[in-house]
Amino acid sequence: METLLQLKPTPSLVSNQQLPVVNSYNEWDPLKEVIVGRVEGAAVPKLEPALETNSYPSNLWFFQKYGGQPFPQELIEAAAKELNEFCRILEAEGVTVRRPDVIDFTQPYKTPDFEANGFYAAMPRDILIVVGNEIIEAPMAWRSRFFEYRAYRSLMLDYLRRGAKWTTAPKPSMSDEFYDVDFATKPVEVRYALTEKGHFVSRDTEPSFDAADIVRFGRDLFVQRSHVTNNIGITWLKRNLGDKFRVHEINFPDLNPMHIDASLVPLRPGLALINPARPCIQTDLFKKAGWDLVEAAPSTLPDNWPMYMCSSWVCMNILSLDPETIVVEKQEQPMQKLLKDLGFKVIPVDFRHVYTFGGSFHCATCDVRREGQLEEYGF
Ligand code: ARG
After folding, report:
1. Is the distance from CB of 33 to CB of 368 less than 8 angstroms?
2. Which one of 131, 147, 219, 247 is CB 3.0 to 4.6 Å from 238, fit for a cystine?
């Protein structure tokens, strides 16, 4: 890992755009710099309460078989190739691409509260969120993700030195008391009923949230209570962002709520994609603000594609390069058609092997700098 001393001081403004180095208020303004995750060094997490809840029962064998070991090499190679090509395409579009450090996530660790080994640095969206010039490291709620921030430390130090506000949220101890440890073992219908009543695997004993449970619309941010984001975590977020921002909690009928970016994805002011399988309960909020909600097209992914950590709805997990240009998976033709019909320029990129690691373009990135400033969009 690069140390503080090795980092050269650089001016706090990026000279060509006169923007602070960290500057992003929404999901669609013109993209200038982005962190793209990596799969090198990824480990399969050992089963733990939150992972067991978020995974599908049919996938548990994968974690039982490989937990604590590196991800199978052929999966890593195929996904790394797609991520590298994605980086090349972003650079060709004029975007500065940064990558986390390579870390061996199989290394076991022990805190006073639990023992685990790590996971990966494939999905920067899960752990980092930029709000204005502040970059927040989320606390996370999986034991296997407790030390994930280490892969991003040299980047955070660089942004700090160049003028960013860097905040790390308090991490939950992740002791047994933090989880409803029986939750995952309950039958799926029981879990679903519990989730609908606002009961999740993480309890409210200490704040937790994943950055990917938040979606940014300028002054208004939307967050979902999920298995990894709890009420007290949302309170911390509201208090930390202060009066300049409004944080609204929204919900979806979702058996495995974790990360909002396969449920609600804004595309440009006034237009957002929603997931027809889990329509937002507070749809009125968006309609009243004058937003059109368009249903995402289903994925073309074959049923037998290895998907251990997410659903094929990551087909809607696109990355906007600006309000007119969107990166979409190459084989998701229905999604591409939908977006073209809405007037967007679509950049198709192969990413199915990255899906296997639990996400797509939005998950695998964290937009550090976009043009634009703080605005309101009708809410
Ligand atoms: N829970 C979502 C689904 O399976 C996947 C969201 C992935 N997002 C992320 N930032 N890792 O549909």
Report:
1. yes
2. 247
